[in-house]
Write a structure and sequence with these properties.
By secondary structure, this protein is of the alpha/beta class. The protein has helices spanning about 10-15, 30-40, 80-90, 105-110, 120-130, 145-155, 180-190; strands at about 1-5, 20-25, 50, 65-70, 90-100, 175, 175-180.
């Protein structure tokens, strides 16, 4: 029994439904509609259920799933520790959790002053001050962390880390403006091994 939190348009959930019973959860009704359409088109609607919900308060019983995925979700949750606790709660003992989060110390972040993790607290304080004065509007905060920090947060949620992998490399930028075209960026990335 598999749970995908933040299923988006359902590409992964429907693929998993070919072999497993899948619950697909998302905070946006439009994404759930796309997931249902994709499942029905693939003839897998009977193996996939969708539900509106939030990673910080999962609407499932304890120990309900053998595998839980949250790919591209943790950077956007309100509270990473709470979301990881919820993911651990719904996971059966011996089950597996697959998560991803952006690495705050990735080379492209360190080199760009607008993304540099050392400057983030200053930028956040400035933004909070502007918002408190009624200028601008609050925006979603992207959470990032390094591999050691993620491992510590997983341990606090009583999860054992089996593997941490670095995958991909975002385009390099300067002041949040890409300075290499995507075609060059794609050529400099290592070719994935099969």
């Amino acid at each position: 029994h598999v749970l995908e939190v933040g299923c988006g348009a359902g590409i992964t959930a429907v693929s998993l439904a070919e072999r497993y019973r899948v619950e697909a959860l998302d905070a946006l009704p439009a994404m759930l509609d796309l997931t249902r359409q994709r499942a029905d088109s693939a003839g897998l609607g009977h193996r996939l259920q969708t539900r509106l919900g939030d990673a910080n308060d999962l609407p499932y019983d304890d120990d309900a799933f053998d595998l839980t995925l949250a790919i591209g979700v943790l950077p956007w949750v309100r509270n990473i520790s709470r979301a990881l606790g919820e993911l651990a709660r719904v996971l059966r003992p011996g089950g597996f959790l697959v998560v991803s989060i952006d690495n705050s110390w990735a080379l492209q972040r360190v080199l760009d002053p607008m993304l540099n993790p050392l400057l983030r607290p200053i930028k956040q304080a400035f933004s909070d001050g502007v918002w408190s004065l009624g200028m601008g509007k609050p925006q979603a905060r992207e959470h990032t962390c390094g591999p050691r920090s993620l491992t510590r947060q997983l341990a606090r949620s009583r999860l054992t880390t089996i593997s941490v992998k670095h995958v991909g490399l975002d385009p390099f930028s300067l002041v949040s403006t890409p300075f290499l075209p995507n075609s060059v960026h794609m050529r400099v990335l290592p070719t994935p091994q099969s």
